[in-house]
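ligand=adenosine-5'-diphosphate
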Amino acid sequence: MIAPARRPVNYPLPSEQRSELAKNGNALYNGAIHVSKGRQTMTILAVFSNKGGVGKTAAAVNLAYLAGQAGVRTLLCDLDSQCSATFYFNVPPELKGSARSFAKGGKAVLRSVQATAYDNLDILPADISHRNLALAFEDLKHSKRRLAEVLDPLQERYALLILDCPPTIGLLADNVLNAADRLLTPLVPTTLSFEAHRQLLAFAREEGHKERLILSFLSMVDRRKKLHRELASTATDHFSGMLAAAIPYNADVERMGVQREPVAVFAPRSEAAAAYRGLWAELAAQLWPITAG
Ligand SMILES: Nc1ncnc2c1ncn2[C@@H]1O[C@H](COP(=O)(O)OP(=O)(O)O)[C@@H](O)[C@H]1O
Ligand SMILES: [Mg+2]
């Protein structure tokens, strides 16, 4: 197995933005290159929803792959005891120590990191003990901020952390909201999915988190269904933070489970691969905006 990355991080300059810079000589690349004390600031993106089965893991896996391919040193953190992201990357679902030691943090977390088969992409696997992660946080001081502390030592190696979260609302959600720079929520165009998203936004407001941190995209869109078409077209009226990218309901995404690879690897010309590339480009522009200067 290839060793996980130990090199210092590269500037996370996605290729789309590289060509943008080439076109616009006086544009300043102004998000990712926060160098403090000779070290870059790591960006944390949490793929999160209070609903299960909406395409979180599919998005996290494909975005992590695309980020790595764009030259961004990326770590995908699987926080779900179902270990689906870990499975997709063919990595054993094992942490060094259990969720309890994970919750305490420290450099031990680094020892659980595994390489993937792809450039610039490592994975922090989940294991079954993650089902007790919220309980483990609850037993510690500053229980709503533990995850941020656990992830902090990863600054040394990565420019981008993508968290694949279990469906939940409560202490783990607080931890995710406190740790992440942005949440990314897949929204299936159904009534209940929109309702769940309203609950999440209300929870975030109640807990004092900024709503603008929550971005969403349409997921599993089936254009043959009238309701999907209707709700998809009105999503921006209901929610701020909607990205334009929409992931279609597509058999190639389901095939990831058989191939155990991101879509862009085994079906690079598919509609699904193109949709994830669009999502990544839009997201990269949000995470690391280029400002003229
Ligand atoms: N765009 C899509 N089109 C078709 N099937 C999808 C799509 N996205 C996800 N799936 C399938 O739906 C199921 C749930 O997706 P997953 O990404 O694991 O959701 P979550 O992480 O939100 O629970 C999986 O079997 C996955 O293969
Ligand atoms: Mg999942």
